[in-house]
What does this fold into?
Amino acid sequence: MSVLVNKDSKVIVQGFTGSEGSFHASQMIEYGTNVVGGVTPGKGGSNHLELPVFNTVEDAVKRTGADVSIIFVPPAFAADAIMEAAAAGIKVIVCITEGIPVKDMVAAKNYLQGKDVTLIGPNCPGVITPGEAKVGIMPGFVFKPGRIGIVSKSGTLTYEAADQIVKAGLGISTAIGIGGDPIIGTPTKDAVELLMNDPETDAIVMIGEIGGNYEAMASKYIRETGNKKPVVGFIAGQTAPPGRRMGHAGAIVGGAEDTAAAKMKIMRENGIHVVESPAEIGDAMVKALQEAGINA
It folds into this structure.
């Protein structure tokens, strides 16, 4: 079992024929992801990468049975692309686009309320279930199959965490890059909950960063579960000055609770194994599994 995507996922690419969509779609296909087509308005009826191109997501869903979409659409149109995918019945939407206006994302998030759809991103690296499906821009070779889940705000640190886990002799069940924008579809707590409820995930790596309260909410949820699965945590931005955005649009210290130190304190208080450096993630996970008596 996995969460969000697997070998049975039927994936379409919105922005299929653009340079970014073309490159990453070909990488996903090479990885073995079941990409069934793509969407570029005005190019419906043509073929691209030996797959059909459709004018609308609705057409693509009707013709291919697609249930997952990945979005490589420019920022001005990306929120509309999210809503179009949801309206067409797509169940998992992965939005890679960076720089979507906050006002547009407010409208998109409101539109998704009450619908049977999960949005990952925007401004994210995507989701990967190693050996089954890569719906994103991550380097697939880093990820090996296993029983450790990853939830991360940072794309680069998602790959670093996976590399550390693999070098420790473990593997990944599903890695979810949730995105670093102020408004995203799936906050840390919701992504952690997916992995907590996955019977083939034994433990979780949770990577956060300065800004917002996602990590605090997730930490409290983990304690409420009785810490049923070990969690190793890391917070990026430990040296960031207050009031200055660091990397992601949502990574800005706005108050005392937004700092890396405050978040790490909350995580420790809720039973999470906190590391000071990403280089310690693998060793910390091995130790956490041993303490929990789990042979992963």
